[in-house]
Amino acid sequence: MYIPAHYKNEDLAQIKDFLIKNSFAILISQLDGRPWATHIPLELELDENGKDVLVGHISKANSQWKGFSGNQEVLCIFNGPHAYVSSSWYVEEEVPTWNYIAVHVYGKLKVLGEESVMASLHRLVDKYEVHSKQPVSLHTMSAKTLKQVRGIVGFQIEITDIQAAYKLSQTRVDDHAKIIRELEEREDPGSQEIAQTMKNGKS
Q1: Which domains are delineated in the chain?
Q2: Count of CB atoms within 10 A of residue 11's CB?
Q3: CA-based diameter of the chain, in Å?
Q4: pTM of the full structure
């Protein structure tokens, strides 16, 4: 992705934290010569060698999996908060813009066996059920229900490149305080998160 130098984030620890907290992503690959995209959770994990990987699954009814061969390179897009920035908040005249956080992860995809897929599903459910009032667990589900696992394709993506854009008005330092105040007055979550991120100096 195109990232001007002042918006590029290379703080790997910060980026990993972002991927963990914003794991609902877009998986993009090629199928029959055309781009294909699916919106799914992609969990950042460590493989058996301690390397960072993304783990996910899609339904076999989704034709995208038919292109998962030959160690294909895929693109995973993780979107964070975003907010419109009015140039009326600037001291000097300028055009309006948009602040946002986005991370692109490239990698080589390989299909997982049923046992590895089931293990990944246990981790996924346990992670997101922890705050439920009545948490469910795959451990207590019937064999009949768990047969649905046969209807999915699980995979692991070996990460080959990470590109992170944190566009947070870095070129408008003199206007930061005003931009933050204006964003905080808005009620939408994106504006609130971008304002907080700017206040925290994450850029």
Answers
A1: 5-172 (2.30.110.10)
A2: 13
A3: 65
A4: 0.92
